[in-house]
Amino acid sequence: MNTASFASKPDDRLPRYQQLRDDLVSRIAAGEWAPEKAIATEAELGQFYNVSTGTVRKAIDLLVSDGVLTRTQGKGTFVRRPRFDSSLFRFFRFVSRDGQPVRPTARVLKREVVKPSEEIRIALQMKASEKAIHLSRVRLIEGRTVLSEEIWLPRARFDVLATLPLDQFEDLLYPLYERLCKQVVASATEILRVEQATAETASLLGIKTGSPVIVVHRVASDFAGAPFEWRSTRGAADTFQYQVEIR
Amino acid sequence: MNTASFASKPDDRLPRYQQLRDDLVSRIAAGEWAPEKAIATEAELGQFYNVSTGTVRKAIDLLVSDGVLTRTQGKGTFVRRPRFDSSLFRFFRFVSRDGQPVRPTARVLKREVVKPSEEIRIALQMKASEKAIHLSRVRLIEGRTVLSEEIWLPRARFDVLATLPLDQFEDLLYPLYERLCKQVVASATEILRVEQATAETASLLGIKTGSPVIVVHRVASDFAGAPFEWRSTRGAADTFQYQVEIR
DNA sequence: CAGTGGTCTAGACCACCTG
DNA sequence: AGGTGGTCTAGACCACTGG
C-alpha cells in the first residue's frame, strides 16, 4: 500500500484494512466528506490506497458497524449523522394526552459564562483558565415540564452561543451547534443513575420531593473523539424504561 | 450450493452466507456442537456446503458479531457460552467492605409449582394448562440482602428443579439449568424500570418504604430463540449505574 | 511439524439507483 | 445505460496453536 497516500504515517504492524480505516476516520474528522455526503467509491479508494476492493470493503465494514458510515446499494457510502433527536426516547417514554409519542419543546431558563467545576473541566478536556457556557433549560410537553437539563460547553468552540438571544435557541441543540458553531456530534457516552428529587428539581418537574428521578449524564464528542458537550438530564423515574439485549 | 446439505430447505432468495448462517444456528441449537467445543473448520464447511471459504467466513462473521461463536486463531471456532455471571454488574455495583467487587451469594426462600400469571405465561410461550416453577430468592453480600429475585420456569423443561432440595440450589442458576435440565441460556432481553419500594421489598432490602428501587425484568432464551426463564430482580437504586455508548 | 483462523488479491456477476 | 454497492469465487500467504 502506498504510504504516501496516508494523511499520517500508518502503523505497519496493523493490517491494511485497519490502517485504511484509521485514515478514513481522520479524513472524515478533517471534514473532507461532510455528513450525509457520499465518500469516494470503493473502486476509487482501492486505486488510491493501492489495495484490492475486498480490503476496502473490510475497512468500510468496520466503520459501518461503528456507526460512522452507512452504505446504500446503487447510491454510495455516506458519512452518517447520528440521530440524537430520538436519543431521549432511548430512556424516557413521552406521550401526549392522546397517547402519541411526542418530542418535548425546550426553553432556556438561564445562560452564564463561568469557570466550570473541575469535574466538567476534565470531562471536556479544557485548559484550567478556559471558561464555559452554562445553559439551564427545561423541556416541556403540552406546557408541562418533563425534563430539566444542565449543559456545559467550552467557550472557545461555542462563542456564538454566549451572546445568541435566548429565544433563538431551538428545541434541538445539535443542529444549532452544527449551523452556528460548525460542531458536529459524532458519538456520546451516557451514564444513568437514580436520585431522589431535591426540592428544587421536584418543583421544576412537578413531583414530590424525594421521589425517584433518573439522571442521564452525557458527554458528546466530535469525529476525532474530542469531547465538547457535557449535559445532565433529569426526569421523573415513572416515565423511564430501558431495554437491553444480552448475548 | 448443495441444498441437500441443509437441515431444512433454505430460502433461495437469501444470500448464501445468510442461508449458511441460519443452518449453522440450527445445528448449534440442535446441539451438534456443544458450548465451548470447536465447530467444523472453515475449509470443511466450505466443502460440505460447496461454497468458497470467503462465504463461510462471512457467515461465521455474522455469528461472531451476534455473540454466538468466537474465533481463536490457530485453534478453531467455538460455540460461545454467554457469561451471565457478571450480568448483574452491568447494572449494579456491589463492593464488599474493603472495596473489592463481589458476587452476591444466593438463598432460595420459597418454591412452588403453580399456574403462572397470564403475562408470564405469554412471555414464556407456555400452553394455557402448563404449570410453572416459581422461585423466590434473595442475594446477599456479607449477610446483607442486596437483591430480591422472582424466577419463573416452565415445569416441562425444569421438572428436576420442582423437587430438588432447596439447599442444593447454587448461587448461579444457569450452570444448574445446564447440568440438571440440559437448558443452555443463549441470549436474554432485559428491561429496566424504577419503582418505589413496597413495604415488603423495603424490609427485604433494608431500605425505607418508598425509596427508589431498580427493577430488571429478564427473559432468557435458548439457541433456537425459545424463551424459558422469566426473572425479575429488585435492588436499591443507590447501588445502580449503567453506561451506554451512542453513535 | 501440521492445522487453524487472519489477511489479502483480482477478479466476476448481480441488484439497485439515477439520469 | 452507466455507476454504485452486494455477493461470491478460488486461490495465496501469514500468524498462531498444539503435539
From TrEMBL, chains A, B:
PANTHER family: MANNOSYL-D-GLYCERATE TRANSPORT/METABOLISM SYSTEM REPRESSOR MNGR-RELATED, MANNOSYL-D-GLYCERATE TRANSPORT_METABOLISM SYSTEM REPRESSOR MNGR-RELATED
Protein name stated in the entry: GntR family transcriptional regulator
Domain of life: Bacteria
SMART domains linked: HTH_GNTR, UTRA
Span of the signal peptide: none
Record domain HTH gntR-type: where: 14-82
UniProt keyword annotations, A-Z: DNA-binding, Transcription, Transcription regulation
Pfam families referenced in this protein's UniProt entry, alphabetically: GntR, UTRA
Record organism: Paraburkholderia rhynchosiae
GO biological process, one term: negative regulation of DNA-templated transcription
Transcription is among the record's keywords: yes
GO molecular function: DNA binding; DNA-binding transcription factor activity
